[in-house]
Amino acid sequence: MLPELSRQEILRYSRHLLIPEVGLEGQRKLKASSVLVIGTGGLGSPVALYLAAAGIGRIGLVDYDVVDFSNLQRQVIHGTSGIGELKVESARRRMLDLNPDIQVEVYNEPFTSANAMQIAESYDLIIDGTDNFPTRYLTNDLCVLTGKPNVYGSIYRFDGQVSVFDARRGPCYRCLFPEPPPPGLVPSCAEGGVLGVLPGTIGTLQATEAIKVLLGIGEPLIGRLLLYNALDMSFEFVKLRKNPNCKVCGPNPEVTELIDYEAFCGVPGHDHDSGAVGGGWDITATELAERLRRGNHLRLLDVREPHELQISRIEGATLIPLGQLASRLSELDSAEEMVVFCKAGTRSARALELLLSAGFRKVKNLQGGINAWAMEVDPSQPIY
Amino acid sequence: MPTLRIPAPLRSYTNGQSEVTVNGQTVEEALQDLLKKYPTLKPHLYNSNGGLRPFVNLFLGENNIKDLQGLGTPLKEEDRLLLIPSIAGGSEA
Fold first, then answer.
1. Where exactly are the structural domains of chain A?
2. Could you tell me if B43 lies within 8 Å of chain A, comparing CB atoms?
3. Is B63–A240 a contact, with Cβ atoms under 8 angstroms apart?
4. CA Rg, chain B, in Å?
5. How far is B42 from chain A (nearest CA, A)?
6. What whole-number distance in Å separates Cα of residue A138 and Cα of residue A144?
7. What is the CA radius of gyration of chain A?
8. Coil vs helix vs strand at A319
């Protein structure tokens, strides 16, 4: 039995009720539906707002972060007044303001193999709005193992991908990407950047697909992957097929329960990067400033992109973007002491690995990058 | 000559180029030509034993080359290959 709509709900959803594909029965279906949104960041923001507005009866939100000033360029569910607040609480407040007739359940915790089954159990559909590989593989495997549709979206700079992975009717995420790339091979949004409106486009498409799947209308992106590029304004589709050797949705699966996804991906899914490499290879900004003050001869190697010099710089540094480092090693002298830095320490950690493997030994990683330098040593430089 | 679409995360290895013209009768030859032009791309596409990395997906038109003839898939002059990256991004990272 589908729930009835109140007179107020009939008015609220009147523009839906006018569409034959939705209608009164469709709106009652949405009211009876439940969706779990993993992540309340760039993608989760439009997803949660539109699902709330559309009258999905019960929406769950999983996130463990707090709202940060640098989130607001794209995470439109949060506001300046919510800085420092738990993201799930900030999002719930906004959703209930938009639509008090729905239920919003919040899980202020990392989504892990230990809690995922229990959290997801009572939801009809899962939306993958995460930002890291371990949680993406966890979400995929969970959906395959429990037979739930997984509405996938991911973004990078101007590029986005959307698909609906429903292993009962088509391929899963692992059919396309059996394994994650090794850590460090693919830059994150924090390092690579993202156009703020891009997650708006991709998240809105995810919300569209979720509503179609819940209503059973149209042609959801099952077995198709949408590739969007904002600069070209291009939408391209490719066909995805079920991989007969898929380790989770194939006929002879190896993965029959949730595994340790951080170990599988070789990266932490939840802890924020400290910008350090460990093993005695780090130097703090304060130590570096002290050594420079003492007149130690040090080569400073900036592995950021040229356009980042317009934001902040350390005087006297040599710029070699990480992508060019391997082919420009001859410009560096391994006998010279060197400190490598980037924005926050992730790219420089990769540069350090590359330098070590090329035989450099007198190298250090500036822990926390130029942002740490701006915070500890040179407050005239902005943090970004 | 066939063209190959380079995804954004890999463009720092192709001098920012998003579409690269490649020479070759097959997908494999086209990739070899690509790596001749941009050698630093190699570790992103191939693993140490010379095989394509499992997360590297190449599509010819709308079909995955795995569903065609793999690396031996023949290419025509006007063909366009799409390299589809594994991207994790959502909000923070």
1. 33-265, 282-376
2. yes
3. no
4. 13
5. 11
6. 10
7. 23
8. strand
Give this prediction's pTM. Answer: 0.86
In a domain, B65, yes or no: yes
The answer, for B51 touching chain A at a CB cutoff of 8 Å, is no
CA A134, CA A112: separation in Å to the nearest integer? 9
- Residues 6+ positions from A104 with CB-CB distance below 8 Å: A52, A58, A59, A60, A61, A91, A92, A95, A96
Q: Do B90 and A181 touch (CB under 8 A)?
A: no
| CA gap A288, A377 in Å, rounded | 9
Residue B92 lies in a domain: no
Cα(B51)–Cα(B40) distance, integer angstroms: 16
Mean pLDDT, 10 residues at a time, chain A of 384 residues: 97 98 98 98 97 98 95 97 97 98 97 97 97 94 98 94 97 94 66 88 98 98 97 95 96 96 79 70 95 93 94 95 91 95 91 92 95 95 94
What CATH number belongs to A33-265? 3.40.50.720
By three-state DSSP, how is residue A111 classified? coil
| Residue A246 is a catalytic residue | no
**Strand-strand pairing, B80-84 and B3-5:** parallel
Q: Can you read off the two tokens belonging to residue A182?
A: 């090794």
Domain coverage including residue B75: 3-84
Look at residue B90 and tell me if it is in a domain. Answer: no
Where do we find the tokens 């924005």? A343
Tell me the C-alpha distance between B57 and B30, whole Å: 14
Domain assignment present for residue B91? The answer is no
Q: How far is B81 from chain A (nearest CA, A)?
A: 11
CATH class held by domain A282-376: alpha beta
What CATH code is carried by the domain that includes residue B22? 3.10.20.30
CA dist., res. A24 & res. A164, Å (int): 26
Band of the pLDDT at B91, cuts 50, 70, 90? very low
